[in-house]
């Protein structure tokens, strides 16, 4: 008699044992050190950390100013929060710090509850994130549909863009700048005659330097060059523009001493909704960033460990007077491209930022606010995710409805409401699609009778399909939607590097949504970069249309009518052309 969980005769477990609590929450830093970490890896991580710090220096200050707080608080967040996220996190490459996605929430919280209320909300959000991690809720964050993430990210981009118009054009408002966009835009238009040509020129030149540097010298820190040139011009020519020094009096040269926020039951009740919103957005943003890093490197993060680290970082950031910290997609991607090997790159990025603050704090006083506004306008433009937006609008009316509802509610109402409404619409559309996918046959018996093997159209079993060392076949059955996308994605990520081709059979997939299509697109790109041919067979016209809308098309993948037709082609050794299909 076999032991539970073992196969006949072999004693090998059918499924791997569940990991222990310690294994799930062991930081990736420990994993990397156990694998073997030498001077070569340290050098690569230090170079990557310096590269990311150069990008994060102006960006952290710009985000803090856009949040309605002083620029030093952005640096405190990047230094303290960024260090702890890398030290304790479940991702090898995650870079933490202040994020543009938080600007709207942080600015409104600071306006309603003051700096003390903001610190308390950040502190509480950190506790919530730690609890979510320990409850292993990170898995469920992955169930948020792709149109919702694109919609709220684009909505945040629009809000950031409008929030920077005042400094971008150097406008002088007669009163405080309104928060809601429907009130902000008329107020800015009314002050159009106060625009400063010099501020506008500095902002435009900042954007031009960043864009041109990225195009012609992609390895150079264009963002730092642009801000530094604007600061030198403002100092050298004594330009009459608003700077960090004229508005905030510069930035300190040291970290402040940690202190607890003001705790009271009344204050906690007041900021609790903001703390929940910080935790929700922080969880989504950090796990999206970790997924991007996984896609670029082929590694896999541990989501619950990452949430616990994000929570710890937010608690510490609040103690040092920082704003909410989270994983940042752009800086994490920069870290990967700079050759990072592990979390020490993120830790060193925080140390370099601290050194910059100690040495270059006086120089930061000359940075024009219009230059920082130019940086954030460019960040907001990239957040719009224009290609993904257009692809979702073209994919189907249901995906477009979820996308536009999330986007419009985020822009004109509230970010949290936008996510809730978008997720609810996505769930209802999924239920509707499941109902439409159900077919009823006339006089079908409760239990299907046995039939002869020769009468069901079966072909002779070919054992080589299961043992071919060069080809792997995956068959997906059932509705392929956002709830199953993470599971299928995890399977596809384990495509063996020694295989030459892999086939995805969609014969039993009645429909798929944009989240699933995006998962397949990522797997196909990964296969292409590894030199593995990717084939999709049996896809219905509707399924293929959705896949194509998300970039799953030749030459990245080739389509076939059946697995057999593709196998026959591969065995003949025929050359694969970009447009070839196999019938």
Account of the protein in words:
- This protein has 583 residues and is mainly α.
- The chain has 25 helices and 6 strands.
- It has helices at 21-24, 28-35, 39-66, 71-88, 103-134, 138-141, 146-163, 165-169, 181-190, 197-216, 222-236, 244-248, 265-297, 303-319, 329-337, 344-364, 369-383, 386-395, 397-412, 415-437, 464-467, 482-492, 514-529, 541-549, 563-572; strands at residues 96-97, 326-327, 471-477, 501-508, 533-537, 558-560.
- The chain has a 4-stranded parallel beta sheet.
- Helix 4 (71-88) runs antiparallel to helix 16, helix 7 packs antiparallel against helix 20 (415-437) and helix 13 runs parallel beside helix 15 (329-337).
- The protein is globular and about 75 Å long.
- The two termini are 48 Å apart.
- The model is unreliable at 1-15, 438-448 and 455-459 (pLDDT under 50).
């Amino acid at each position: 008699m076999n032991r539970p969980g073992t196969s006949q005769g072999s004693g090998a477990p059918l499924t791997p044992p569940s990991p222990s609590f310690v294994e799930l929450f062991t930081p990736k830093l420990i994993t990397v050190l156990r694998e073997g970490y030498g001077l070569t890896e340290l050098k690569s991580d230090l170079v990557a950390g310096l590269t990311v710090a150069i990008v994060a220096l102006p960006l952290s200050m710009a985000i803090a100013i856009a949040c309605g707080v002083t620029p030093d608080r952005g640096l405190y967040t990047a230094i303290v929060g960024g260090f702890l996220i890398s030290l304790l996190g479940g991702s090898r490459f995650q870079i933490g710090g202040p994020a543009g996605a938080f600007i709207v929430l942080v600015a409104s919280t600071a306006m309603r509850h003051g700096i003390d209320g903001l610190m308390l909300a950040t502190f509480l959000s950190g506790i919530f994130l730690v609890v979510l991690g320990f409850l292993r809720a990170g898995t469920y964050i992955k169930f948020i549909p792709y149109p919702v993430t694109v919609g709220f990210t684009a909505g945040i981009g629009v809000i950031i863009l409008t929030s920077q118009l005042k400094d971008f054009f150097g406008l002088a408002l007669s009163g405080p700048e309104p928060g809601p966009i429907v009130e902000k835009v008329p107020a800015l238009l009314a002050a159009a005659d106060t625009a400063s040509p010099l501020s506008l020129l500095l902002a435009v030149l900042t954007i031009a330097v960043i864009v041109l540097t990225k195009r012609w010298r992609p390895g150079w820190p264009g963002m730092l060059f642009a801000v530094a040139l604007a600061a030198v011009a403002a100092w050298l020519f004594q330009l009459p523009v608003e700077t960090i020094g004229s508005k905030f009096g510069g930035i300190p040269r040291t970290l402040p001493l940690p202190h607890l926020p003001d705790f009271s039951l009344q204050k906690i009740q007041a900021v609790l909704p903001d703390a929940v919103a910080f935790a929700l957005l922080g969880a989504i943003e950090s796990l999206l960033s970790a997924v991007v890093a996984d896609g670029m490197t082929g590694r896999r993060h541990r989501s619950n460990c990452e949430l616990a680290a994000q929570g710890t970082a937010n608690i510490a950031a609040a103690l040092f007077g920082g704003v909410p910290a989270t994983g940042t997609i752009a800086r994490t991607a920069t870290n990967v491209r700079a050759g990072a090997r592990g979390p020490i790159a993120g830790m060193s990025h925080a140390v370099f930022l601290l050194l910059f603050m100690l040495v270059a704090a006086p120089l930061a006083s000359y940075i024009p606010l219009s230059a920082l506004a130019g940086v954030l306008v460019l960040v907001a433009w990239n957040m719009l995710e224009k290609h993904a937006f257009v692809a979702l609008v073209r994919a189907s009316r249901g995906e477009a409805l979820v996308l536009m509802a999330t986007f419009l509610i985020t822009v004109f109402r509230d970010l949290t409401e936008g996510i809730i409404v978008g997720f609810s619409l996505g769930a209802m559309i999924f239920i509707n699609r499941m109902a439409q996918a159900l077919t009823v046959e006339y006089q079908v018996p409760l239990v299907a009778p046995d039939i002869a093997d020769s009468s069901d159209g079966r072909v002779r079993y070919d054992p080589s399909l299961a043992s071919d060392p060069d080809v792997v076949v995956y068959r997906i059955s059932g509705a392929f939607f956002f709830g199953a996308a993470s599971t299928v994605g995890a399977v596809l990520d384990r495509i063996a590097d020694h295989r030459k081709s892999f086939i995805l059979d969609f014969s039993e997939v009645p429909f798929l949504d944009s989240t699933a299509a995006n998962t397949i697109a990522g797997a196909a790109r990964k296969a292409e970069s590894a030199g593995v041919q990717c084939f999709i067979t049996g896809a219905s016209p509707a399924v293929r249309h959705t896949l194509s809308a998300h970039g799953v098309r030749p030459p990245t993948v080739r389509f076939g009518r059946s697995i057999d037709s593709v196998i026959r082609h591969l065995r003949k050794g025929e050359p694969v052309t970009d447009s070839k299909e196999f019938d």
